[in-house]
Amino acid sequence: MKKYFLLIMLSLGSIDPLHALEFAPFSQPRFFAGGSGGLFRISLDDFTQLYSSRWGFSPGGSAGIRVYKSNYLVAKYRTFQKNGKTAGIEHQSGQPLQSARWQEEWIAVGVRAQPPIVSRGNSYYGFGAAFYRVSESENLSIFDPADGDTGSGFYLELGLQYFLHHRTASFFEMEVASGGLRGKTGFEGFSIGGFRFALGLSVFLF
């Protein structure tokens, strides 16, 4: 068993998946755009009173422009939708819970720091502000529609990417966001933000 393990380790050691792409110092691409899809878990504690789960699919897109050395100004768009529970009645309105619909979208603007690209595999991290919009079904809502449907908060991101080509990279990204509607607190338990784990593809255009 040890012999096989040593052979496997030696074989892996002979592969260099991070061989250099010969990027000159600070010759980072000036602009990138990409898309992603993954799982999002909303932080709002009361969410499952009406909706089937706090987890759901979340598509999104992003674009960034290099502003200083390896630092990018980034804009991102995300969405998250959820249907109501398949059984049950809302006690105040008397409507079936399955008629409930949650539609959330948010735009995030921030800064991303990415070390100089000298190999196929690298990482990045960033932070910034997030701006939310939420819509729910009439008479089946966690929030009072009369109070408005917009809010704001912040986000943090951490990503790993691998260059498939000189201008194309696949990535895995974890994003943590927090936000509150109508000026209310957006901390854990009351937040319409949450955790997002996604896979995607970025194209570095120039």
Structural summary, described in words:
- The protein is mainly beta.
- It has a single domain (33-204), classed as Porin.
- Helices cover 6% and strands 53% of the residues.
- The protein is built from one helix and eight strands, in the order H-E-E-E-E-E-E-E-E.
- It has one helix spanning 2-13; strands spanning 31-42, 55-68, 71-83, 101-113, 121-136, 150-165, 168-181, 194-204.
- A hairpin with a 2-residue loop joins strand 6 (150-165) and strand 7.
Task: Describe how the helices and strands are arranged.
Layout: H1 2-13, E1 31-42, E2 55-68, E3 71-83, E4 101-113, E5 121-136, E6 150-165, E7 168-181, E8 194-204
Antiparallel strand pairs: 1-2, 1-8, 2-3, 3-4, 4-5, 5-6, 6-7, 7-8
Short description:
This protein has 206 residues and is mainly β. It has a single domain, classed as Porin, CATH 2.40.160.20.
